[in-house]
Amino acid sequence: MDPNAKPAESGKVQEKGVFEHRSFARIGFLGNPSDVYFGRTISFTIGNFWAWAKLEPSDHLLIKPHPFHDLVQFHSLDNLVYRLENDGYYGGVRLIMAICKVFRNYCKDNGIQLHDRNFTLSYDTNIPRQTGLSGSSAIVSAALSCLLDFYNVRQLIRIEVRPNIILNAEKELGIIAGLQDRVAQVYGGGLVYMDFSKEHMDKLGYGIYTIMDINLLPPLHLIYAENPSDSGKVHSTVRKRWLDGDEFIISSMAEVAKLAEEGRTALLKKDYSKLKELMNRNFDLRRSMFGDECLGAMNIEMVEVARKIGAAAKFTGSGGAVVAFCPDGPSQVKLLEEECLKSGFIVVPVQLVPTRLSSSDLKTLSDSKP
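and the corresponding structure tokens:
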């Protein structure tokens, strides 16, 4: 997929019974990774990159392999090994199969009747791999949207529940993650404040999600490496330490969650000097908990390149890309571009995407207040 090409409109019906949807890459702006620790986060999707899914009726149910991401033909044995060593055993077919299974089981368990017609599902993506921009969940989210329309059940499955369905599909494949990314993508753009407090999670099974005005954000930049091979390959013990009652991890994660709460206030007041402080503190807390070996030298360098010229910077996710804020404006952005060029990093302005929820989506939202 050409990253400069205009994506197909989300939900566009090209012909009768054919559905296309896209789901955008996600930036975890503040509070991550506290979403898996009963915390709070602020996230938004960006128009720079997206995944796309297309569903069309067919006699047999077919999941189409992607010509690049799901390769089964190679030039040689060496070529096969090279691809596996660089890209792993993963492609999009397994993701789509998982969401089909989880979607069907959810409908069955909740008394939602599905017709028995078959379909062909295909996908494409231009989200850079291993950049912490939620590329996998974007594919799943786009596919789920196609299924909702094909079976005409969009109005029967509440928006707040859909991120759980996506996450459950990824859990089928052993992917360990939180709800934050899936919420941002299900909400179809815009800025979302998320409260994953234990009280809400225990009572509802999901968090409390509040849509904010995307225009509250200042101009931001995305930094990433073309070859993110050094993405922190040491397994983290943070989750285990948190479960074991480690006071440092528990207090640090609580502080990370509080950054999202403070960030919400700062955004509403457009207090961008405070926002800079919160972004930097978010990364510093993550670094203190996870350690440099776990984060990866290249990831840390991306943050330091931005901080070197006075910009705020933090991970977009768990590593692989960085979101930067240059409070001093265009002159500082130019310095950032120069430093990234010297270090071999790609830097692009973040393209903000307003929320794209449909009227039927909004109806499920308005009917689902706790």
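(Above: one complete record from the training split.) The two ends are 41 Å apart (CA to CA).
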